Amino acid sequence: MIYKNFKGEKLSSLGLGTMRFPTLDGDDSKIDMAKTAEIVDVAIKGGVNYFDTAWGYHGGMSECVMGELLSAYPRESFNLATKFPGFSEDTFREKENIFSRQLEKCRVDYFDFYLFHNVWEKNIEWFLSPEYGVVDYIKKQKREGKIRHLGFSTHGSLETVRRFLDALGDEIEFVQIQLNYLDYTLQDAKAKVELLRERNLPVWVMEPLRGGKLATLSDDKRNKLSALRPEESVPAWGFRWLQTQPEVTVTLSGMSDITQVSENIKTFSEHRPLSDKELSALCSIVDSMTDKPSFLCTACRYCTAQCPKELDIPRLIKLYNEHSIFGGFMAPTALKSIDADKQPSSCIGCRACESVCPQNIKISEVLSDFVEKLSNKEE
Ligand code: SF4
Ligand code: SF4
To answer: pTM of whole model > 0.90?
Structure first.
């Protein structure tokens, strides 16, 4: 296992994400304990010493299961991370109860790493609200030794990340972001990495394979990569790309079976960053996944001044692009932070925006297609 130095401590560069454990009866909150115990055991024997759970994972059961399984190991032998939930305003009113329950569920006296969970546009006000006082309360827990290191995870915009960092100053020691070779450009993760580099903050990676979506590629894409590194699997290419990013300290992978754990441990047993030639092969694969006209949007914002509905067109296009490739919940979730009268469905098709778009994007058609794609999902 490769270990990274973080403030004089040795952290395994591969961390076990605990939101995709095997379950029973198709019920996400019924974790298969026997299989999960094996996963944790194989991970620990393979050198993993970082475990990432959260209040909400597996319907609240992930913390309980990690508490039970890790209590069999010496406390100093592992790093446990959990998070303050940010998905509902109610949780902010119950900070004391939540934090003390987390310690009980995880069967620990302190957390090695504690994160504000998914700080984004919809909840940043709650996190920063003096009335709820969550930040002050968590800082107090740190001063009292119940938290060793403080950070936050985020799927939010660059502006939101910057604002939260500005608000919390030196309290933040690391930031967990969604980073992989596709989101580097698609989700503008590159700009977040650059911001964190400026602030001397290490990067923790979530979704290194996009929830498994980058674990398989079409035959032509896979063959292209195999020609360069026949011995590497498709998932390993995703991890090797991350090894090419010097800011990355811990890469979290939500592993669901021991085969995955063993393969990932093997990948993280050596540091093999990609060469320029290999990086350009991966870039061309990303290009072929993002070759629709809508991906040409440069966010110049010329169009927004023309729009009678005052839509944030580049933001909607960015979400459309995300949704076109992967579908899933990401774009629909992000749309929830946008006012009802600024949704893609608010476009009246006047095409005033299109006359000024230097990339000749058929914006009205993009938004109409977005509405259709979203409604198909809801059927
Ligand atoms: S076509 Fe839609 S997005 Fe473009 S200006 Fe008209 S209302 Fe706005
Ligand atoms: S004018 Fe075109 S390229 Fe510029 S932000 Fe609007 S859609 Fe994107």
So the answer is: no
